[in-house]
Amino acid sequence: MRYFDYFTWEEEEAVFFSAPTPFDHTTERELLAYAVGAALYCPATRQTISEDILNRKHEGLTTMVIDLEDAVGDHLVEMAEDSLLQQIFRLSSFLKIGSLSRDHLPLLFIRIRSAQQLARIIERLEEKISLITGFIFPKFTAANGEAYFSQIAAFNRQQSEGSPVLYGLPILETPAIIYRESRMEELLAIKQLLDRYQRYVLNVRIGATDFSSLFGLRRSKTMTIYDILPVRDCMADIMNIFGRMDASYVISGPVWEYFSGSKQAPVSSLFPLQPEQLSGRGERWPLRHSAAPETDGLLREVIMDKENGIIGKTIIHPSHIRPVQSLYAVTYEEYIDAQSIIASQGGYVGVLKSDYANKMNEVKPHMNWANRVIARSKIYGVLHEEQHFIALLASQEQAYV
């Protein structure tokens, strides 16, 4: 897979200073964690998953989560498992006969309900599990986490050298995490557990919908999750525990629930944002002529995610793919700053003026930020100096005038 591979060579050359690099589920964990990006959820009962992937129905899709949990009714679990297996076996046959290229196979994850179901799915997939990047563990706690990761570790230990790693991705969304009186104890216990299995943890995901439900709250399409105070405070503590650079995890942001119920306005109608307007804190998001406030809110939330070190987002509609992924592309200014900081780490320079002469770059304090920017640049690419993420959103016939 490669981000923005739907562009022609000429279009890519016009937008990117450094194009995104290819990746797949065998890519080293440190880079693969950033590549999860916009993860499109679909219920395991969907009968066209394999055909949708074969036909590349969703432009830009790089990550798919096949859901056996909330998206499946309690009385349909057995049918959903059978459907999941059928879709994975079809994908395997498409690859075998050559109708599907591995370059076009997205990262595949399965969200399961229990440790018992995890064991059952692993057994039933047999050798076809090599197509799966990992399993997602909802309502993850310190109490149930061992049962999940002990299985993941045991499976990986049994694989031959060179086999792709099977990852686990915990979702933090339980009452013990958001309730203030139990939060720190639970988060620290989860952190201790994950640290023991760190090589198998691809990222840590935040389940803000379940958090909000505990307070009877739901953000509107004009707000971000950062405007919901109990959830924001909890997210801050999750970032504090799991985002520290001495033992850092890539943290993925919560799902955005809204999409347009009518025909979408063309994304080329978005008005390019000014640099001072990129914080997303204004009363109105400056997207001129947009008929989709759902997109306005999504863009503001992703920008706030990124400002807080969160990369990756659960999505539930294909229209979210481009907006989320486009914002992860690295700007030329970010890239030049990061390169300059890394190049100055020999100890002879402590602080330097940026190439744009608009900020101070301190070598030691900004080194962790610079390393993260370079990692993101490899996956999502670096835009040309004169380009903006809007170019990645705009229609192909208008983006490169």
What is the fold's blueprint, element by element?
Layout: H1 9-15, E1 16-18, H2 29-35, E2 38-43, H3 49-54, E3 63-67, H4 77-97, E4 107-111, H5 115-125, E5 134-137, H6 145-158, E6 167-172, H7 175-178, H8 180-196, E7 204-206, H9 208-213, H10 229-242, E8 251-256, H11 293-307, E9 310-315, H12 321-328, H13 332-343, E10 351-353, E11 360-362, H14 363-380, E12 382-383, H15 390-393
Parallel strand pairs: 2-3, 2-9, 3-4, 4-5, 5-6, 6-7, 7-8, 8-9
Antiparallel strand pairs: 1-12, 10-11
Cofactor: Mg(2+)
Organism: Paenibacillus algorifonticola
GO molecular function, one term: magnesium ion binding
Descriptors:
single chain; 401 residues; alpha/beta; TIM Barrel; 2 domains; eight-stranded parallel barrel; two-stranded antiparallel ribbon; 15 helices; 13% strand; globular; disordered C terminus; metal-binding
> What would the average pLDDT be, to the nearest integer?
90
The CATH class of the largest domain is Alpha Beta
Would you identify the regions where 5 or more consecutive residues have pLDDT less than 50?
265-291, 395-401
Strand content: 5-15%
The CATH superfamily of the largest domain is Phosphoenolpyruvate-binding domains
Q: Level of helix content?
A: 40-55%
N-to-C terminal Cα separation, in Å? 27 Å
What would you call the shape?
Answer: globular
CATH architecture of the largest domain: Alpha-Beta Barrel
Q: Mind telling me the C-alpha Rg?
A: 21 Å
Strand order of the largest sheet: 2-3-4-5-6-7-8-9
Question: What do these coordinates show?
Answer:
The chain has 401 residues and is of the alpha/beta class. The chain folds into 2 domains: 1-18 and 330-401, no CATH class; 21-328, Alpha-Beta Barrel (TIM Barrel). Helix content is 41%, strand content 13%. It has helices at 9-15, 29-35, 49-54, 77-97, 115-125, 145-158, 175-178, 180-196, 208-213, 229-242, 293-307, 321-328, 332-343, 363-380, 390-393; strands at residues 16-18, 38-43, 63-67, 107-111, 134-137, 167-172, 204-206, 251-256, 310-315, 351-353, 360-362, 382-383. Helix 5 (115-125) links the parallel strand 4 (107-111) and strand 5. Helix 2 (29-35) packs across helix 14 and helix 11 runs parallel beside helix 12 (321-328). The longest helix has 21 residues, at 77-97. It is globular. The relative contact order is 0.13.
